[in-house]
Write a structure and sequence with these properties.
By secondary structure, this protein is α/β, with parallel strands linked by helices. It is about 55% helix and about 10% strand. A seven-stranded parallel sheet has the order 3-2-1-4-5-6-7, with helices on both faces. Strand 4, helix 7 and strand 5 form a beta-alpha-beta unit. The structure holds 2-acetamido-2-deoxy-beta-D-glucopyranose (4 copies). Keywords: Oxidoreductase, Signal.
């Protein structure tokens, strides 16, 4: 907590210094306003939490069915178990229903839990799953759809093939859209049903190496935001769960290393030489360190708790960020100006320069002052000043326009 406050304080000081010569007051008020809103929101959520943990009792779960995607392992698997114990009729979508995970899930669950083959990228699977649920559901009604299936991806943008981008987006973004659209007719039968979308902290912040993954999760959350508004008239609520990295299958190091090896071998000679083997080695340790930061297995339950709350809570929240430390970090990160966020994130990246940069430096082909991270546009703080210069009484909307890009091009 104290470091959070210290960071905020130094930020305010920093912001003030940067803009001291010109527009201290408008910016200070804007900053304080944003800070106040966040702190209030945060405090209210904290208070809300104390009273709000109740979930539906067994008597109220009997007539409710839930469809979950991605139940082979991890969060989905555990959620299916928990909801089954709570008395829901669970349809557990699995990539491979005859795999070890799904068989174990079925063996340990009640007769009411059914595993179904459901690859969220396949329209035919989705249609078959819909038909199965519709006939199997009997006197129950579809109460919730949990879009949990997802895939991770770590790669440099320059190395990542278009087909990889397409695959990640197909699973993480189009998957939830495909599933939700297909099951809405059944869901609408129940006055008060729910859609849950398991996103990620990467849905709000973008980390280097995670372009495909972050984009896919950002888009999924955006879909959830629109869906929440549009489903309001049907009394269907929409909830996102946005965990950081935990030690589930998605944090498997061997998976990413194998994928990286394949990606690297697939690259053109040219690109491989530009980056070089030293850089690749450093990139592997970057992946290793990142995955090492995954929260331990015993904490996975806190994510599943939030998922259960989203499905069965009496007063579910629109957005869950499991783990209080993650929440604080996310909130601070969300308040910081882009440049500062960049500075923080750049610290974690491989420090080995690509082979080509070294080569050019040694041949004096580049001005050493314009190396990576050397120069950048200062967007946030020059933005209001440019507007204020033009109009004597700036409107609030002026703060949210982006004249800076053009301005700089003209220089
Ligand atoms: C909407 O659904 C909730 C259950 O989630 C129910 O308690 C409430 O009465 C419903 N509202 C209306 C207006 O039907
Ligand atoms: C990746 O490639 C390196 C070097 O070719 C090799 O040592 C390593 O075992 C490979 N890793 C995986 C997971 O295939
Ligand atoms: C290898 O490159 C081809 C062509 O760019 C692409 O279609 C394929 O998906 C790539 N494979 C991998 C593993 O990146
Ligand atoms: C509030 O409760 C939710 C769900 O139990 C949890 O994810 C979140 O971390 C809690 N937030 C705070 C501020 O305690």
């Amino acid at each position: 907590m104290t470091w959070g406050c210290a960071l905020c304080l130094s930020l305010v000081v920093w912001a003030t210094l940067v803009t001291a010569t010109h527009y201290v007051w408008p910016l200070a008020f804007l900053g304080l306003g944003v800070l106040a809103v966040h702190i209030t929101d945060w405090a209210l959520k904290g208070l809300n939490n104390l009273t709000n943990k109740a979930i539906l009792s067994q008597g109220h779960t009997r007539d409710k069915a839930v469809l979950i995607t991605g139940c082979d392992t991890g969060f989905g698997h555990m959620l299916a178990e928990r909801l089954d114990h709570l008395g829901f009729k669970v349809y557990a979508g699995c990539l491979n229903p005859n795999g070890e995970g799904p068989l174990r899930l079925k063996a340990g669950a009640s007769y009411d839990l059914k595993t179904i083959k459901l690859d969220v990228t396949k329209d035919s699977d989705v249609r078959a799953a819909y038909d199965f649920v519709q006939t199997d559901i009997g006197n129950s009604k579809l109460w919730a759809v949990v879009n949990n299936a997802g895939i991770g991806e770590i790669s440099e943008i320059e190395w990542c093939s278009m087909s990889t981008y397409q695959r990640v987006l197909d699973i993480n973004t189009l998957g939830p859209i495909r599933i939700t659209k297909a099951f809405l007719p059944l869901l609408r039968d129940y006055n008060g049903g729910r859609v849950v979308i398991v996103a990620s902290l990467a849905a709000r912040y973008t980390f280097a190496g995670f372009s495909a993954y972050s984009m896919s999760k950002h888009a999924a959350v955006s879909f959830a935001d629109a869906l929440r508004l549009e489903m309001n008239k049907w009394n269907i609520s929409v909830h996102t769960v946005e965990p950081t990295l935990y030690r589930t299958q998605i944090a498997s190091e061997s998976y990413y290393m194998k994928a990286l090896n394949q990606t690297w071998e697939n690259l053109s000679e040219d690109i491989r030489n530009s980056y070089g083997n030293e850089y690749l080695k450093d990139y592997k340790s970057f992946i290793h360190e990142h995955l090492n930061r995954a929260l331990p297995t015993e904490k996975i339950a806190e994510v599943v708790d939030d998922m259960v709350h989203a499905v069965a809570g009496i007063q579910p929240k629109s957005r869950y960020v499991p783990n209080i430390k993650t929440q604080i970090r996310a909130r601070i990160l969300g308040m910081l100006p882009t440049d500062l966020v960049d500075d923080i994130m750049l610290r974690d990246l491989p420090s080995t320069p690509p082979a080509d940069i070294e080569r050019r430096k040694s041949q004096h082909l580049i001005d050493p002052r314009i190396g990576p991270g050397g120069q950048r546009l200062k967007r946030i703080f020059s933005m209001p000043s440019l507007q204020i210069k033009r109009s004597p009484s700036p409107k609030i909307g002026d703060f949210f326009t982006f004249p800076i890009v053009k301005e700089n091009l003209e220089e």
